[in-house]
Design goal:
Layout (H helix, E strand, L loop, with lengths): L2 H18 L11 E6 L2 E13 L1 H4 L4 H10 L6 E11 L4 E4 L14 H7 L9 E3 L5 H4 L3 E2 L2 E2 L5 E5 H7 L2 H6 L6 H15 L3 E4 L4 E3 L2 E5 L8 E7 L2 E5 L7 H4 L13 H18 L2 E3 L8 E6 L5 E5 L7
Parallel strand pairs: 4-5, 5-8, 8-9, 13-14
Antiparallel strand pairs: 1-2, 2-3, 3-4, 6-7, 10-11, 11-12, 12-13, 14-15, 15-16
């Protein structure tokens, strides 16, 4: 072997060693996904992921849950997305759910940064609609007792407000359950004090093209939001589902997070049946990002979730 050949081999080995030594990046691109719905622009904003030991949370035998995870090449705990939905109607900028911010640990809290990466500023948001007052949906509203969205009116179900913002309920809660009340209080109360909180008391059109629809079960005043423009429809299901690889195939499987599992199951079944029949788009905070897609029947009493095709806004 010639000296020249040995020199080339040595150079290649040095180059390969240098490349192998590059540090792992360990971060994703900004977590937003943009599409259109009629004349509206929809931007899904990811807040990060939350590890859920779903075999311990779903109300079915753990082995059955683990088998469903394995079928989808997943293991427990499942990295579960937490998402918000930004709707630009042309006249209003509406954010539905705000993520957890700092309430649920370091793997969340990315929604505000992703909103900015998507080309918006928090002061541009006109209205914020909350599906329900769990911390991973309201945490992004406030920071250090200050409103993150200074010009926004916040709306949520009155039944949730009456329950989660009630100091008597906080006082009566066990030590483990107090966070369920403290998180919503620190997140919503700055808007209450500023006169920027408006409870939703009935199904109604909140701004042209966006309606509220009560479906309790998960929480007392849980709401899904229906977005419509130019004959196109998107229904944002809130926490009617948490584990897509299980609850689409069997919507009768409840989860410990629900206050009334029987009602939550009935509402989920009704929502899936309507989405499959009418063919409209659905989204949900805990669907895998970008959390948009369609539902079709599997012919066995269950459903299949069909994620949307990746598209460029036009």
């Amino acid at each position: 072997m010639s000296t020249r050949t040995l020199t080339v081999i040595a150079a290649l080995l040095i180059s390969a060693t240098a490349q192998a030594g590059a540090p792992m990046a360990r971060f994703q691109a900004p977590g937003f996904y943009r599409t259109t719905l009629g004349d509206f622009e929809i931007t899904v904003l990811n807040d990060g992921t939350l590890d859920l030991p779903v075999e311990k949370l779903l109300k079915q035998p753990p082995a059955k849950t683990l088998a469903a995870l394995d079928k989808s090449f997943l293991k427990s705990p499942v990295q579960t997305s937490v998402n918000g939905f930004l709707i630009n109607t042309g006249s209003k900028l509406v954010l539905i759910d705000t993520g957890a911010a700092s309430l649920f640990g370091p793997t969340l809290g990315q929604l505000l940064g992703n909103l900015k990466a998507a080309g918006y500023k928090p002061e541009q948001v006109d209205e914020i609609y909350i599906s329900h007052m769990h911390g991973d949906h309201v945490g992004g509203l406030a920071s250090n007792e200050q409103r993150v969205f200074p010009n926004a009116v916040v709306r949520a179900g009155k039944l949730d407000a009456d329950y989660y913002l009630n100091s008597t309920n906080l006082d009566k809660a066990s030590a483990e359950a107090k966070d369920n009340f403290q998180g919503p209080m620190v997140s919503i109360n700055p808007y209450v004090k500023a006169g920027k909180f408006q409870p939703i008391i009935a199904n109604t059109e909140l701004v042209p093209g966006i309606k509220s629809y009560f479906n309790g079960g998960h929480t007392p005043g849980h709401i899904t939001y229906v977005v419509e423009s130019k004959g196109q429809k998107l229904v944002l299901l809130g926490d009617l589902l948490h584990v897509q690889v299980v609850q689409f195939e069997d919507p009768g499987v409840g989860i410990q997070f629900d206050m009334d599992s029987k009602i939550a199951i009935a509402e989920r079944k009704e929502a899936f049946a309507a989405a499959a029949k009418e063919g409209y788009l659905i989204g949900a905070p805990h669907l895998s990002f970008p959390a948009l897609g369609h539902v079709r029947s599997n012919g066995k009493g269950g459903y299949v979730f069909v994620p949307i095709n990746y598209t460029q806004p036009r």
